[in-house]
Design a protein that fits this description.
The structure is a homodimer. Chain A is of the alpha/beta class and about 500 residues long. Chain A contains 15 helices and 20 strands. In chain A, the strands form 6 sheets. A 7-stranded mixed sheet of chain A has the order 7-13-12-11-10-8-9. A 4-stranded antiparallel sheet of chain A has the order 14-17-20-19, with helices on one face. In chain A, strands 1-2 form a two-stranded antiparallel sheet. In chain A, helix 12 runs parallel beside helix 14.
Chain lengths: ~500, ~500
């Protein structure tokens, strides 16, 4: 062995005696990789933690309200096959899940079964056509109530009315331009229903010996004016028929209280007062005087104007209406009526209304009214096209008008109801004709003080119910046309209608 | 240099030419430590992530309802110095935070400033004494409403009343044993206030030519029976004073509608009917016939019984009352009245009531009634001890009675109101005496058809307001005692009272 070989052998031996440096090197690489991976994992976990925090900044802060939120979201997540809806206070199944409440013509636990030739109920005025708007605005329209929310009778200022809600109502009228509220009093009612008689009471005489005021309305009129006034059998006021029949007698000493409904329910006509003179008081029911149902030609400034949430946002069940009142004495008598009959409007109702109106105000009303107007316009177009083919049935004739809100000189016609006339001599009871021949339940003309030759059909139901109604009416009119049209024409006509 | 030295030198050189193995070793240790630390951090982060997930299993699932929950919790977190409360629909400050609504005798933005010798308003019947119970049950009593919650007029069965709520009401009466509901009809009203006239209407004649029914009540009576009946000036019914004045005439052909209030408002006495005969109908107002206010000696089964949420859970602002009705014809007429005057009770009100009653039912009513009874018992004990020292003022005398609910033969007396009599000849107007001498605003005796020598003070306010009332009454009685007692006796007496 040479010297050099010896040296190398010794060196190797020394190297072997030391730790295995190559293994160490490999370990070092492995450790480096592991550490890099671990550090990266840490980084990802930390970033995702802060990302989670920033996306749900307060999720850990939700305490007492979380359970109620979860309940509400669980209920709303039930699809009900797209033909129904579940609510928190619906009937519950054994498992505790609420039952789906099905649209007309659907049944079954999940509303998946279609009921052929079911009854189409368009008697009521449920404005479900606005439900999709509220689903689109779910976040801003939700409201959470604590168990101790407003337990007392009065608000902080001793009144029964939320000043915040009053402010929102005034802002909305200013934005829409349909009624003047500046310097006017506002009275809330449990629906405008309660305000009908509150207004009649306020306008009737305080004197015990005075004559009974005559309450009147123009045919066709909303039936509750009569039935509610009749209910109390008051010595102070009495429903006394159609306005027109008193036109030459309103100057004498009899006191009149005239209901003026504009747009009118059922026929959607814009109306003006009929009776004049110092003995006549007017109650202007403006439930439908909003841009989705009506042109807004002028900003009204009447002595007593009634509005309701039901036909503004579609929340009928909430039961909130309001009166805008010019004279303090009338306002005070209306407030006294509300105090005495229900001691104000439910505070839950007032809070929820405030939430809903704030959503409407956020878009200066445009979003809600654009949505509503577009739906109603397309519905009226479909319907008027269909009825133009019929000689047996006619729709009310509505003239286009200007609308300051949409800045349009001539806006489309978008009434809430179809006021249908049966034109044939033999069809004296139009309500029965639709029921018997098409299984459609409308509201009979005589309910509105009108001829039985008329029937009112609601156009503000949800999309599916409206589609079913149109299909049923198409069937009815197609029967009529079979006698007068060539089949090809009739088919073509309906081909267009159903697209 | 020897051979060996040469070898070592060469080896060192070779070693120097290789990576520094010692440094590597140290790096290895550093890496190991870092990796261990990093892995530990990984472990901690992962564990905390899963812990967080398991504690808030669904926090990521809350979507549309989160914002409303956060708003409600933010408002409820305002302490208002413990002397007030903030609500979602309260007035808001510039920053958007709701203003604190302060208790009586406190003021300032955060209710921190005490107002010395302020007016103690115990005129109203706000049952704030139950508010702490609802704060204790915050999670189960909260309710979240979606923007599309019950937009329609009717429930799924076409009615205006939640069947779930009706069921809860029946269960509660069964649990408490205060009224029989089996086979009885239930009518909801916007507060029992609305049901007063609904019942009067239902009991009055349908015939147009019949006589006017006399509506009567026993003095002292709840003022709204008279003022509400007067309001309508109906040909069908008329408030006609005190029941006792008709005791010998109820057998003739006149129809009577007698209000029977038990326990009575204002004096807490258990009452029975006074008039009898086939022409007499009875409206049993049982607003206070719950275990926190009254003994429950028997389960009542009257023709028409009225209850209200206001005095059961303390939610006056919610405006929900109900009637339990035996006869179908009476039930139908009441339902017609509700339909015509408000078209049912707000659906928000019905949902919230359902939530609240479910909380009461969860503990078989024990939790709520134990809480309420204990508060009211201690208040009455303080008050009766105080008034026992006075000869100028006296409290109503209430006898102990058995209570089937608490399984007690003799339970303490726990009325909702003190019905105070000014005994001195010169104190003819007791309301003014308390106002002038102690700045206490009660409700005057003549409002209840009684002598002005009486005044009603509410005992169901919150703790602080009640304490202030007692201190003010102590001051009043101490003035009286200065003339008759030795100072030491008087001091001693009050020493016990204020502990």
């Amino acid at each position: 062995m040479s010297n050099q070989q010896q040296q190398t052998a010794i060196c190797k031996k020394q190297q072997q005696q030391q730790p295995k440096h190559d293994d160490k090197h490999q370990n070092l690489i492995r450790f480096s990789l592991s550490l890099t991976f671990s550090a990266l994992l840490n980084l990802i976990l930390i970033v995702s933690f802060f990302l989670n925090m920033s996306m749900n900044p307060k999720h850990d802060q939700l305490t007492w309200s979380r359970k109620a939120s979860e309940e509400a979201e669980a209920v709303s997540s039930l699809s009900c096959s797209g033909h129904g809806v579940a609510h928190l206070d619906g009937l519950v199944l054994d498992g505790g899940l609420p039952v789906c409440e099905c649209d007309a013509c659907y049944t079954g636990l999940d509303c998946s079964q279609f009921v052929p030739y079911c009854l189409i109920d368009v008697d009521n005025g449920n404005p479900f056509f606005l439900e999709p708007f509220w689903r689109q605005n779910a976040e801003n329209s939700a409201v959470m109530m604590a168990g101790w929310y407003r337990m007392g009778y009065e608000f902080a200022d001793g009144s029964l009315e939320s000043k915040q809600l009053e402010k929102a109502i005034r802002m909305l009228h200013d934005t829409v331009g349909n009624a003047i509220t500046k310097g006017r009093y506002i009275v809330f009612g449990t629906g405008s229903t309660q305000l009908f008689n509150a207004a009649v009471y306020a306008f009737s005489s305080k004197d015990s010996g005075s004559t009974t005021a005559k309450v009147v309305a123009s045919v066709p009129y909303y039936p509750v004016y009569k039935s509610q006034t009749d209910l109390f059998v008051s010595r102070k006021y009495k429903f006394d028929g159609e306005t027109m029949s008193w036109i030459n007698q309103s100057e004498d000493s009899t006191n009149f209280i005239e209901f003026v409904t504009s747009p009118n329910n059922p026929d959607g006509q814009l109306k003006d007062v009929i009776l004049g003179g110092k003995n006549v008081k007017h109650i202007h029911d403006l439930a439908y005087y909003w841009p989705h149902f009506s042109p807004i030609p002028i900003q009204l400034d009447e002595d007593l104007m009634l509005f309701t949430l039901s036909k503004l946002t579609g929340h009928c069940g909430t039961r909130l209406g309001w009166a805008i009142v010019k004279e303090e004495s009338v306002y005070k008598r209306m407030m006294y009526y509300i105090d005495q009959t229900t001691y104000g409007v439910s505070r839950e109702t007032q809070l929820r209304t405030l939430k809903l109106l704030n959503v409407v105000l956020q878009g200066n009303g445009r979003e809600l009214f654009d949505f509503g107007y577009n739906v109603m316009r397309s519905r009226w177009e479909r319907l008027s096209k269909l009825f133009s083919l019929s000689k047996r049935f006619s729709l009310q004739d509505l003239t286009q008008n200007n609308c300051t809100f949409f800045h349009k000189e001539l806006r489309s016609v978008t009434p809430a109801y179809a006021w249908i006339k049966c034109e044939n001599d033999e069809d004296k009871d139009c309500y029965s004709v639709l029921w018997d021949e098409a299984n459609i339940k409308g509201k009979a003309g005589h309910d509105f003080g009108s001829e039985s030759r008329y029937v009112r059909l609601s156009l503000i139901s949800n999309r599916q119910d409206f589609d079913l109604l149109v299909r049923r009416l198409e069937g009815l009119i197609s029967q009529e046309m079979k006698g007068v049209c060539e089949p090809s024409n009739y088919e073509g006509a309906f081909g267009n209608l159903t697209t």
